[in-house]
Specification:
Elements lengths: L3 H10 L2 E2 L11 E6 L9 E5 L5 E5 L6 E4 L13 H35 L1 E2 L17 E2 L6 E8 L5 E9 L5 E3 L10 E3 L5 H6 L7 E4 L2 H11 L3 E3 L5 H9 L7 E4 L14 H13 L4 E3 L14 H6 L3 H9 L8 E3 L5 E3 L7 H4 L7 H9 L2
Parallel strand pairs: 12-13, 12-14, 14-15
Antiparallel strand pairs: 1-2, 2-3, 3-4, 4-5, 6-7, 7-8, 8-9, 9-10, 11-13, 16-17
Helix pairs in contact: 5-6
Length: 367
């Protein structure tokens, strides 16, 4: 018997809200909402098999699959017949092919939109604070800002992964089919984002941060090339993807996150920045922004610092960046903790982290 409550609770812990009255265990894909509150935006999805295994996708964080394993949740599994196993394998193959086609379409659409776009320096997202677009494009001033999403393939070749689109009100969404796991946006990006990213191979130093707004602010103040991981959880994932391909002289500029409704999301910006810096080794440093006059609010970042007129604070944070083992911040249980030696939380916190093909097989054929 399917434990709907367990699946729905697990999904909510991972940022996907499923209406209990509409949750169906039929092996088909259904829409859900991403975030802390249900808003009927249908920016997430789920699939639940009749045996209780399933997965969720959060399109706000790139649409990567997170798998729900019945046995890992301490639940029992009903037996499957050979015919049922074969049906599941067939659906797996169909869904994998559909995801691959979806991704190819996303890349083609991203490149076409980029070619049609024009410099977006007057886009409303870049007005408060005033930021240089650094090569980003949009179809018009009121259209969505286009952020190229790039990544290394299995042969270490830089490729397009899709687009992040930013509305005039700052709402961010990955275009359907974009693969953000281990991917990034580069600032400045230039006319050809791949050429801009390739230039990083020769860079002596760069900055790694979370969002594109932060990246634009950091580049504007420092002149250094910046990679945006596009989510906090993707910071360590991206670090592992690029380590050894470009210099390890990097400053990971964290968002100064505070406590969150879900405990495991508290201080996620700082903790993921520390984890990312540890991937690079001794050449990496971590900078955490602080409001120079007053209490630093949760989520404070370099864009907020510019909004406060504190470009000097950004430069000071970069110059004063510390090795990851020296970064201290409030523990999610209260008090302070040495983040540099904290246990690995990637399985829960890395929004882009996905499981191996073997684990996928285990999820849907775990007998």
């Amino acid at each position: 018997m399917v434990d709907y409550g367990k699946f729905i609770t697990w999904a909510a812990e991972h940022g996907v809200l499923i209406d209990p009255a509409r949750c169906v265990a039929d092996g088909k894909i259904h829409r859900a909402d991403a975030g802390e509150l249900a808003r009927d935006r249908e920016d997430a999805s789920y699939l639940l098999w009749p045996d209780g295994n399933g997965w969720i996708r959060n399109f706000k964080t790139g649409g990567e699959l997170h798998y729900f394993h019945v046995r890992k949740q301490g639940l029992s599994l009903p037996p499957l017949s050979a015919a049922e196993r074969e049906e599941i394998r067939g659906r797996q193959a169909e869904q994998a092919a559909a995801r691959e086609a979806e991704h190819r379409g996303a890349v083609e659409a991203a490149q076409a939109a980029w070619t049609r776009g024009r410099p977006a320096d007057e886009h409303p997202y870049l007005r408060n604070p005033t930021l240089c677009g650094a090569g980003l494009r949009a179809a018009s001033v009121r259209a969505e800002l286009l952020v190229p999403v790039l990544g290394f393939d299995e042969s270490d070749v830089l490729t397009w992964r899709g687009l992040q689109r930013i509305a005039v009100d700052g709402t961010k969404k990955f275009a359907l089919g974009t693969r953000s796991h281990g991917a990034f946006a580069v600032v400045p990006c230039g006319d050809d984002p791949l050429i801009g990213a390739e230039a990083l191979r020769a860079a002596e130093r760069f900055i790694l941060c979370e969002g594109i707004g932060t990246a634009l602010a950091l580049h504007q103040v420092t002149g250094l090339p910046v990679l945006a991981a596009l989510s906090a959880g993707n910071l360590p994932v991206l670090a592992r993807a690029i380590a050894g391909k470009i210099t390890d002289h990097v400053v990971v500029y964290a968002d100064a996150d505070g406590l969150a409704v879900r405990k495991e999301q508290s201080s996620i910006g700082q903790r993921m920045a520390v984890e990312a810096a540890r991937v690079f080794g001794g050449g990496a440093r971590v900078a955490v922004p602080a409001r120079s006059n007053g209490v630093t609010p949760p989520g404070y970042d370099a864009r907020d610092q510019l909004r406060d007129g504190d470009s000097d604070g950004i430069a000071a944070a970069i110059d004063g960046a510390l090795p990851p083992e020296l970064i201290r911040l409030p523990d999610i249980e209260g008090g302070t903790s040495d983040v540099g030696v904290a246990p690995h939380h990637g399985a829960v916190l890395c929004a882009g982290d996905r499981e191996t093909e073997e684990e996928r097989e285990e999820c849907e054929l775990d007998r």
